Amino acid sequence: MARVPRPRAVIESPYVELDRAAWARLRNSHPLSLTGDDVRRLRGTADRLDLNEVEEVYLPLSRLLNFYVGATAGLHRVTTDFLGERPAKTPFVIGIAGSVAVGKSTTARILRELLIRWPDTPRVELVTTDGFLFPNAELERRGMLDRKGFPESYDRRALVRFVAAVKSGVTEVTAPVYSHLTYDIVPDEHIAVHQPDVLIIEGLNVLQPALPAPERRSTLALSDFFDFSVYVDARESEIRGWYVERFLRLRQTAFADPKSYFHRYASLSDEQAVDRATSIWDSINAPNLRQNVAPTRSRATLVLGKGPDHSVTRVQLRKL
Ligand SMILES: Nc1ncnc2c1ncn2[C@@H]1O[C@H](COP(=O)(O)OP(=O)(O)O)[C@@H](O)[C@H]1O
Ligand SMILES: CC(C)(COP(=O)(O)O)[C@@H](O)C(=O)NCCC(=O)O
């Protein structure tokens, strides 16, 4: 009897990749433009925000997210109907990952301002994971003060508990607050999240897998609660330049404040400041990017690839 040939497994990339022009063209099928209100809200999200970039890249993304929000709500309805329960509104959770200085906070703020415009997501809350860093005293006790931003420098269980509580509809969920001024967790200060339509959670390590077996009490990873995730990507040499640039700007603003932990940097010459920033980058942020952050890129739903001026040149969207 003739043997039926087995189909060969084709290992396909789970992503569809679009260059900027192809992504921007998607806008034609979803006529979108910024209103005066949008522009007012967007001002202040970045030092030099290009509104054309917002229209061509972030507006179509907010449309896609709006479709996902609708489809995800439908899926939740299926589960509650099946269980015979009363439907409850579940916040849609978006994770935003990427290196220090790649533009996560800016992306998160732009998306928040754009998502607010859709009638089904007027309440969007934004939380950064730095509030879940261990306080400096604890990091020092663990010998990790020079590893801020590495996965182990966060209270990962508290972070998972926080997102799980928001997602399960708890009326008020609080998170600790980190200050870039004092370079530490602010004692007795919290932010509160009240049943948002969308929670955006932004941080270096939001796409990290669950803790390995000996350390974990739960097998859940933060990303198990995500409905969508974005990895903001760029060449390491560009990100390093953005980090140094931001450091030079902070020298004239935040570091100039006598209360700043980095006040001693305010008096550095340009050359000394570049040396200092480069040395922090090379000893902490670059190794963390290579060892921990970049390896999570392939777990994102969408990858935004940026060119040297922060403009998005390439978009990868998961289709499988
Ligand atoms: N889309 C953008 N357009 C222009 N500048 C940007 C954009 N995204 C980020 N930047 C700039 O790059 C630097 C790093 O961005 P930021 O959002 O603070 O990064 P992260 O949160 O990843 O550390 C900041 O100086 C910011 O103003
Ligand atoms: C606070 C950060 C760890 C980022 O935290 P995130 O919000 O991504 O969780 C980072 O911005 C940082 O300050 N890194 C420390 C490098 C240094 O010690 O200067």
Automatic annotation (TrEMBL):
Q: What is this protein called?
A: Pantothenate kinase
Principal subcellular localisation of the protein: cytoplasm
Which enzyme class, named as a word?
A: transferase
Q: Name one Pfam family in it.
A: PRK
The biological pathway it contributes to is:
Cofactor biosynthesis; coenzyme A biosynthesis; CoA from (R)-pantothenate: step 1/5
Gene3D superfamilies associated with the record = P-loop containing nucleotide triphosphate hydrolases
Keyword match Kinase:
yes
Q: Which domain of life is it from?
A: Bacteria
Q: Which UniProt keywords apply?
A: ATP-binding, Coenzyme A biosynthesis, Cytoplasm, Kinase, Nucleotide-binding, Transferase
Q: Which GO terms describe its cellular component?
A: cytoplasm
Q: Where would I find the Phosphoribulokinase/uridine kinase domain in this sequence?
A: 93-235
Q: Which residues does the annotation say bind ATP? A: G98, S99, V100, A101, V102, G103, K104, S105
Query: What is an annotated GO biological process for this record, any one?
Result: coenzyme A biosynthetic process
EC number from the UniProt entry = 2.7.1.33
Q: Do the record's keywords include Cytoplasm?
A: yes
What is catalyzed by this enzyme? (R)-pantothenate + ATP = (R)-4'-phosphopantothenate + ADP + H(+)
The GO molecular function terms of this record are: ATP binding; pantothenate kinase activity
The entry sums up its family as follows: Belongs to the prokaryotic pantothenate kinase family.
Compartments it resides in: Cytoplasm
